[in-house]
Design brief:
By secondary structure, the protein is of the alpha/beta class. The chain folds into 2 domains: 158 residues, ATPase, nucleotide binding domain (Nucleotidyltransferase, domain 5); 240 residues, Nucleotidyltransferase, domain 5 (2-Layer Sandwich). The chain is 41% helix and 14% strand. It contains 20 helices and 19 strands. The strands form 7 sheets. A 6-stranded mixed beta sheet has the order 14-15-13-12-18-19, with helices on both faces. Strands 3-10-9 form a 3-stranded mixed beta sheet, with helices on both faces. It has a two-stranded antiparallel ribbon with strand order 1-2. A hairpin with a 5-residue loop joins strand 1 and strand 2. The protein is globular, with a radius of gyration of 23 Å.
């Protein structure tokens, strides 16, 4: 194991030498499926397809399969409602089957040439192990369960009869995918000679089964029962776990409940928001005037400084955080952003604060939904670039939710989580860790700085949240029936009171 020192700030400082690396863990974005040939070579690496975007990895943010996702949801509601129950009630365009079906329809030549499709997080461990043949690749339960509707309760992947309802060729593809998926504490293989030489490492090093970045980030942030880990970046992912020997209800609107997807022997619960940091970047890059600064960094600093001086609600604005659709709890990529309450006097820093508040209201909506279905949120640990670099955001999140906001000690929790799985996969005789939990206890922690909610600010935000939920339900649900004629006037009343 690398040597661990402690700096004065409490941060971990690692002194790493290649000959002491004992295991490798891999995390990637997802769902990011790649079409491959019989040998596992990505089609995009073949001369025939090297300039064809459809033959490349279908990145997780791709929403082009929204129609296919709606079709999968509709068919499953009619014929396999249990499939949807484990993924929040709605299948997403960001997930495996919708992307594969969309590929078949827009690029039939790519689909026909593909022997199989492999998630990126499964493919990289296979590359390192030197065996990319699709039937030999060890598949992770994280990608399979959260994105491909894999569940042991119904025999793994969706059955061929259901897939044939979508397209007969999907039923044929099922035989060329996989029958079993496992947690990331398992061995995906061992480092082959070729990649050992390239990396300057010893051959035979353990390679853990891959998983998604957010799930491993939850592990690296010290996730356990009662802890909500928020990975805050361009988007957000919210992670929770519950022991698998406890009853757990299906939770509408989440991105999946999968046994072993985060911690072995625990149900992993995933939720999230499709855009957070991306919303702020869009605003700064396109709408913030040069009076706030010339560079992107200058603008962010000036916006935060001015916005921090305002009381909650003093700007009179309300936004919906759906600029890239809604992931949780509405699961609808066809929704879009909204800004309400602007006047001829509205300034850029006021809009910036309203956008931060909108993402905080979205985060609170997720917390409320998870707790409504019997999963208590006892603490919140944040990680990712926004958590570390944006104290205004952290304070607003604390004030909106009424909960302390802790920050993971590590800036790279996804890498830490992957490393922990690499150590556990190497075995206790090598790493000293019997379980992932033991590794977390030794490595993970939070910073001394905690953002505590201000009671007065929280009271105002509780009032504003009722208006957010009106907009949320009115624009986001078919069931809503009511009126909104008072929303603008209530925002004005709050603005006048706070000023």
């Amino acid at each position: 194991m690398p040597r661990l020192n402690r700096s004065g700030s409490g941060d971990a400082v690692w002194a790493i030498s290649a000959d002491r690396v004992i295991g490798i863990g891999v995390d990637t974005t997802g769902s990011t499926p790649m079409p491959v040939d019989r040998d596992g070579t990505p089609l995009a690496c073949l001369p025939k397809f090297k300039k064809n975007p459809n033959a490349m990895a279908w990145l997780w943010k791709d929403h082009t399969g929204y129609a296919e996702a709606a079709e999968i949801t509709d068919k499953a509601r009619q014929a396999r409602p249990q499939f949807l129950a484990k993924c929040g009630g709605t299948y997403s365009s960001e997930w495996f089957w919708s992307k594969i079906l969309h590929c078949k329809r827009v690029a039939p030549d790519v689909f026909a040439a593909a022997h199989s499709f492999v998630e990126y997080c499964d493919y990289i461990p296979a590359v390192l192990a030197g065996n990319t043949r699709p039937e030999s690749i060890v598949r992770g339960i994280c990608a399979a369960g959260h994105k491909a509707m894999y569940c042991e309760e119904w025999g793994g992947l969706p059955d061929k009869e259901f897939l044939a309802m979508l397209d007969p060729d999907l039923a044929g593809l099922r035989d060329r995918l996989y029958n079993q998926a496992v947690p990331s504490d398992r061995l995906a293989g061992r480092l082959c000679d070729v990649w050992a030489k390239k990396l300057g490492l010893k051959p035979g090093i353990a390679i853990a089964v891959g998983a998604f970045d957010a799930h491993m980030g939850g592990v690296g942030a010290g996730i356990r029962e009662g802890t909500l880990v928020k990975i805050l970046g361009t988007s957000t992912c919210d992670m929770m776990v519950m022991r698998a020997d406890k009853p757990l209800a299906d939770i509408p609107g989440v991105c999946g409940i999968v046994k072993g997807s985060i911690l072995p022997d625990c149900y992993g619960i995933e939720a999230g928001q499709s855009a957070v940091g991306d919303i702020f970047l869009w605003f700064v890059n396109h709408l913030v005037p040069s009076s706030y600064g010339r560079s992107q960094d200058q603008k962010f600093i000036a916006l935060a400084k001015a916005a921090a001086k305002q009381k909650p609600g003093a700007h009179g604005l309300m936004a919906l955080d759906w600029n890239n659709g809604n992931r949780t709890i509405l699961v609808d990529v066809r929704l879009s952003g909204l800004l309400l309450g602007q006047t001829l006097h509205t300034e850029a820093h006021e809009i910036y604060r309203a956008l931060i508040e909108a993402t905080a209201f979205g985060a609170l909506t997720i917390i409320n939904r998870i707790e409504e279905y019997g999963v208590p949120v006892k603490e919140i640990v944040n990680c990712g670039g926004l958590a570390v670099k944006n104290p205004l955001l952290m304070q607003i999140y604390a004030d909106v939710t009424g909960r302390p906001m802790k920050i993971s000690r590590s800036d790279q929790t996804c890498a830490v989580g992957a490393a922990l799985f690499g150590a556990v996969a190497a075995g206790p005789d090598v790493s000293g860790f019997q379980t992932v939990g033991e590794a977390q206890d030794a490595i993970c922690g939070v910073r001394s700085k905690v953002f505590n909610p201000d009671p007065a600010a929280h009271a105002v935000y509780a009032e504003m949240y009722t208006l957010y939920r009106q907009l949320h339900d009115a624009f986001g649900t078919a069931e809503w029936s009511g009126r909104m004629n008072q929303v603008m006037k209530q925002l004005i009343a709050i603005r006048e009171r706070q000023r």
